[in-house]
Amino acid sequence: MKIVVLAGGLSMERNVSLSSGTKVCRALRARGHQAILVDMFLGLEDYDGALEDIFAAPDGRCSDYSVAVREPDLQQVRRSRRDQSGSLFGKDVLNVCAMADVVFLALHGTCGEDGRVQAALDLLGIPYTGSGYLGSAIAMDKDLTKRLVSDYVVTPQWRTVSYTEADIDRIAQETKLPCVVKPDANGSSIGVSIAHDREELKTALRECLGLGARVVLEDYIAGREIQVAVLAGRALPSIEIIPKQGFYNYENKYQAGAAEEICPAPIPEEWELRVRQATETVFRLLGLSVYSRADFIVTPDGTPYFLEINTLPGMTPTSLVPQEAAAVGMSYEELCETIVRESLKARRGV
């Protein structure tokens, strides 16, 4: 098949997306597909050939790419594009997507995981991987997700606030501590912090002002960090995350060796059943399809506290979904192939 692997974009998870996309593209090419990597925001400004020949581009337009320790400078990315229009789609992106049999969405964050790209591709009749626009949009909103699932799975108590600098002192005084501070619509733990006292909470709120000024303040739950992927509607074996320092933040997620990841998670069979059932419940309630990854804290009594679910989880060399697939004997290449096949079924409604 001709496959466009759409990556990059213009979100704070841009670097993670490019790493995921590069690995996915090479895996699909190893399976015999004519896969090419396309940066959604920068587009094909650097491509000089005929558009109809692009699927024969050497190495699928991939280059070696690893995730930087820090988040990208999005203003610099904006300035680097010759087309300074307001479109999030770069030169010829939609044209080349229309030429493909399917678009593999290796996007992460607000530029690709929030349903807008899915809706655009639906309107153009272009098949793509992963969940549809509505489930994607709901899952990206942590507050809305919790509202929809809290009657069916256990989740930490939370409240969501929209605020300005002038509100920070008041919010810090009235918030129960310790708490977890999360931007309402970001991923990869960007902007997430744990506040143990009022000053830490104020600092966290100030840092989040540049990420949308709408945050979820969630009760801190002490326990083991367990994550569970879903593939084709069924939960895969869970994985336990043990950061070597701090918690599972952006740096610890994408730098090799920063966290110990154990799959299957060394937890009792009863706990495993609970966390898998909770994952599949959230997946169904939100109307998701194909694949996802849910995050939990499991307390010493075995209660899984649901935190959030990701509809386009990372596919980088350190990502968790490939590790969970490997635990059931599925190679990275087979995982990518399965995502493509299941997504085509989902788009066709069969």
Number of extended strands: 13
Low-confidence stretches: none
Dominant shape: globular
The CATH architecture of the largest domain is 3-Layer(aba) Sandwich
Estimated helix fraction? 25-40%
> Biggest sheet, in brief?
6 strands, antiparallel
Number of domains: 3
Rg, Å, rounded: 20 Å
CATH hierarchy, class of the largest domain: Alpha Beta
Strand content: 15-25%
Q: What's the N-to-C terminus distance?
A: 19 Å
Description:
The protein is an alpha+beta fold and 350 residues long. The protein folds into three domains: 2-128, Rossmann fold, CATH 3.40.50; 140-153 and 221-330, ATP-grasp fold, B domain (D-amino Acid Aminotransferase, Chain A, domain 1); 158-219, 2-Layer Sandwich (Dna Ligase, domain 1). It has twelve helices and 13 strands. It has helices spanning 14-30, 74-80, 93-99, 116-124, 133-140, 142-149, 168-174, 198-208, 250-254, 269-285, 320-326, 332-348, and strands spanning 2-7, 34-39, 102-105, 158-162, 179-183, 193-195, 214-219, 224-231, 234-235, 239-243, 259-262, 291-298, 304-310. Strands 8, 9, 10, 11, 12 and 13 form a six-stranded antiparallel β-sheet that branches. Strand 1 (2-7), helix 1 (14-30) and strand 2 (34-39) form a beta-alpha-beta unit. Helix 1 (14-30) packs across helix 12 (332-348), helix 4 runs antiparallel to helix 5 (133-140) and helix 7 (168-174) packs across helix 8 (198-208). It is globular. The chain starts with a strand and ends with a helix. The relative contact order is 0.14.
